[in-house]
Amino acid sequence: MSDVSKLIATQPPAAASAPPEIVPAPASLVPHLGEVAILLDIDGTLLDLAPTPREVWVPPGLAETLNSLLQRTAGALALVSGRSLNDIDLIFAPEIYPAVGGHGAEMRLGSGNEADAVQAPPMDKELKRRLAAIAKLSPGILLEDKGYSLALHYRLAPQAEAAIYEEVSRIRAELPGAPIEVLPGKCVCEIKHAGFTKATGVRELMRRAPFEGRKPFFIGDDVTDESVFAIMPDFAGLSFSVGRRALGVDGHFDSPDDVRAFLARLAQREGQSAASR
Ligand SMILES: O=P(O)(O)OC[C@H]1O[C@H](O[C@H]2O[C@H](CO)[C@@H](O)[C@H](O)[C@H]2O)[C@H](O)[C@@H](O)[C@@H]1O
């Protein structure tokens, strides 16, 4: 297998101490789509952020791009998201993509809509009830129940951030043995089972066909994606952040729009090279 990292253009470091930034060049990656796995975060990476979780939308052409890349990688493209598989399917309907959902709680390898692996037990009902009551702290706090975790969104009530975290800490302090952890995201505080992360989900995915043995490249934007950035070297893979250069990544994109344009070029060039064969 060739070294994918050598196939992309390198830019000089912005600061003397920072390693050089690698900018993915679709043209050089195209001939290697049979050797790579494409792993993509959703919110803030593939899709623009929206005021509420329900308001995201899939821009024209994105599904076509993903379908083309799914085909060209022989199925080795997966969405890696904090959202549940059910939610991902509603957003991308009628398309159904391989995915790691719920920050590693669920995994689906193919386009059948059943999960192939579920890592997460449902969250304790009483705990959930207590956490859910935090939404009453302020109008604008939105509750998202994923079954195995609970997310408190405060994008519409930013002034409530500190109070939400304080209340979550208070509840956790009363339950010192509970196997839960708090995951801060973009204007969201998520409480989930401690036994899984996006990284554990990706490791599981990379053990299964058609992902096994491929070199992954992962694109993500959020704190919750950092666990995946950290494990890419274990698979000789590459990681890219969005909107900022995160610690340890190989390069970054400025916006979801840039990510979509990169993927479209990758799919298009592959389409062209397939047509000219
Ligand atoms: O891992 P991701 O695919 O990036 O999912 C992370 C969370 O995304 C969603 O919330 C975020 O996006 C919303 C829509 O843009 C935005 O309103 C919210 O403020 C963001 O936190 C989703 O609702 C969560 O379940 C995911 O964990």
Shape: globular
CATH class of the largest domain: Alpha Beta
Number of domains: 2
Small-molecule binders here are: the ligand O=P(O)(O)OC[C@H]1O[C@H](O[C@H]2O[C@H](CO)[C@@H](O)[C@H](O)[C@H]2O)[C@H](O)[C@@H](O)[C@@H]1O
Mean pLDDT: 89
CATH architecture of the largest domain: 3-Layer(aba) Sandwich
What low-confidence regions span 5 or more consecutive residues with pLDDT below 50?
Answer: 1-7
- Structural class by secondary-structure content: alpha/beta
Structure notes:
The chain is α/β, with parallel strands linked by helices and 277 residues long. It has 2 domains: 4-119 and 196-275, HAD superfamily/HAD-like (Rossmann fold); 125-193, Alpha-Beta Plaits, CATH 3.30.70. Helices cover 29% and strands 21% of the residues. The chain is built from 8 helices and 14 strands. The protein has helices at 26-29, 62-72, 85-92, 125-132, 161-173, 198-206, 226-231, 256-275, and strands spanning 9-11, 21-23, 36-40, 77-80, 99-101, 106-108, 117-118, 142-145, 149-153, 180-185, 188-193, 215-220, 238-242, 251-253. The strands form 3 sheets. Strands 7-6-5-4-3-12-13-14 form an 8-stranded mixed beta sheet, sandwiched between helices. A 4-stranded antiparallel beta sheet has the order 8-9-11-10, with helices on one face. α2 links the parallel β3 and β4. The chain is globular, with a radius of gyration of 19 Å. The two termini are 22 Å apart. The structure holds ligand L263DTV3.
